[in-house]
Write a structure and sequence with these properties.
The chain is α+β, with helices and mostly antiparallel strands. 27% of the residues lie in helices and 14% in strands. The strands form four sheets. It has a six-stranded antiparallel sheet, sandwiched between helices. A five-stranded antiparallel sheet has the order 1-2-3-4-5. Strands 8-10-9 form a three-stranded antiparallel sheet. α2 packs across α3 and α5 packs parallel to α9.
Length: 496
């Protein structure tokens, strides 16, 4: 057992954005006696506590979750995953510690109560709510039941995963140059790029220390996992609903409750109409209670209850708005259906989805109540995402090791998730996947669609080119244009 490491934070820069955040009114939030005055103004310490909370989570996950495959020192995790990125607002006075016996990480600062995140094995790291010493659920081991990958044929296993030799239409030198170029753009911090063509791996690159099996934070790629979980639960008969059925949320079923009109389709299209405020990266508001979309990442709250306990301000299906409420609600619906069957929720995604495609490294993190924070706190490896992409490329049907096939997603499901939502005026969003019908990636074919997460996490599926392209790593820059260029260079290397 390694000893506890405790290190003072090194200066990175000023804390101006946090200081500026203390003097504004937070609409619709009741004052909190420990943090806000009668006017509803959140004080600096409260806001800095939110910053420290997210940092504690990232420190915990960087050490213990990513560390399942790539062990780094505590100092390296802070230096590589947190400190360089403005979005985390790391503060000069922050101090941090990791206790390897209790498997906890903590971050504190002047006037800020210490924020703790706890590692719970296969449930990853959880930011503990104020006053909590532990999570409220019993962590469980999530067994990986896929057959031995080194003795099982691709795609469920690793045997025969690579083209050998590459197809004649592939310009191997051009493809290699494209991947080398992708890794050479050091400002994007790319840690993995994988290209799958005609069902097998055509090329891949990894940053030092990272491998095909390293679980990396996937951010909102997890929303696409939520979509697949709903589809797999429907296909298996565990969830008895169709896309056009009302969402079976008990709290929405009052006679005068307009939310009873929200359909499963609306949730997956992020068009529910729920008034769930997303303030984006607003420099003043992004760390406050008012930012309902992101509170789930920096406060220890029950994320499922937070999602459903919202009023409506638009009609269902009227408009696409990027808000965490919808995929969280969809996932809660699956949880209720699974537990009503007497089945274990924490192992369900692995059993119903990941085991069947040979994805062995996913870690879906939870809040303190065992709800998956599936809209952002998910860790998956490059090959996990490659297989997830292939499942969608192959219309939700997976070839089994015995030569058969396994329909995991319902027939027509992939068409739904890759078709623009009626309320997506820019033709850029489908069923918890982004879509290219509006030309968001100008160098990608129009039929491309992708799971996407913050800081440039992508799994792009391109049916017309029989391609899946995975890119992982914390990019602070214009990663959309960068991913478009990667796809453009890769497709140019394949003469079809």
């Amino acid at each position: 057992m390694r000893s506890t490491a405790s290190l003072s934070a090194l200066p990175r820069g000023g804390a101006g954005t946090l200081v500026a955040a203390v003097a504004f009114f937070v609409p619709g939030c009741a004052p909190e006696s420990d943090a806000r005055g009668e006017t509803g103004v959140e004080d600096e310490a409260h806001i800095r506590g939110h910053v420290a909370g997210m940092s504690a989570h990232h420190l915990c996950a960087g050490v213990f979750v990513v560390g399942r495959d790539y062990e780094r020192s505590v100092e390296e995790v802070v230096a590589q995953d947190i400190r360089p990125f403005d979005r985390f607002d790391w503060q000069d006075d922050f101090e941090y510690a990791v206790d390897f016996e209790t498997r906890t990480a903590s971050v504190s600062g002047d006037g800020v109560p210490t924020q703790y995140a706890e590692y719970n094995g296969d449930q990853g790291c959880t930011l503990l709510p104020a006053g909590f010493e532990d999570v409220t659920f019993e962590p469980v081991v999530v067994e990986r039941l896929s057959p031995d990958p080194e003795a099982t044929a691709w795609p469920t296993g690793n045997v025969g995963a690579y083209h050998d030799p590459p197809p004649d239409e592939v310009d191997v030198a051009a493809l290699g140059a494209a991947l080398d170029w992708a890794m050479a753009q050091t400002e994007h911090n790319t840690r993995a790029v994988v290209v799958i063509y005609a069902g097998k791996i055509l090329g891949e690159r990894y940053a030092p220390g990272f491998t095909r099996n390293t679980p990396q934070i996937s951010w909102s790629q997890g929303k696409s996992i939520a979509s697949a979980l709903v589809g797999a639960a429907i296909q298996s008969g565990h969830l008895d609903v169709g896309l056009d059925d009302p969402a079976p949320v008990p709290e929405w079923q009052g006679d005068d409750d307009p939310r009873r009109e929200i359909r499963i389709r609306d949730l997956l299209n992020m068009s529910s109409g729920l008034d769930f405020l997303n303030l984006g990266s607003d420099p003043v508001l992004r760390w406050t209670h008012a930012h309902e979309h992101s509170r789930i990442y920096f406060e220890g709250i029950d994320v499922f209850e937070h999602a459903i306990d919202q009023p409506m301000d638009r009609a269902p299906g009227e408009i696409f708005r990027y808000r965490n409420s919808d995929p969280l609600t969809a996932t809660r619906i699956v949880r209720q259906a699974v537990e009503a069957r007497g089945e274990d929720w924490l192992t369900y995604p692995q059993r119903i989805l990941f085991d069947r495609i040979g994805a062995r490294n996913y870690v879906l993190e939870t809040d303190a109540w065992g709800n998956f924070i599936i809209t952002g706190y998910d860790y998956g490896s490059a090959w996990d995402w490659a297989r997830f992409g292939l499942l969608h490329l192959w219309d939700g049907v997976w070839p089994t090791p015995d030569g058969g096939s396994d329909r995991i997603l319902p027939e027509g499901w992939v068409d739904f998730v890759s078709t623009p939502a009626p309320g997506a005026e820019l033709l850029n969003y489908g069923g918890l996947f982004w879509v290219n019908r509006g030309g968001a990636f100008p160098r990608a074919p129009e039929d491309a669609y992708w799971a996407a997460g913050a800081m440039g996490q992508y799994t792009a599926i391109i049916p017309s080119r029989d391609l899946v392209v995975v890119r992982l790593g914390p990019s602070p820059g214009d990663h959309g244009a960068y991913m478009s260029d990667i796809i453009g260079e890769v497709t140019a290397a394949i003469d079809r």
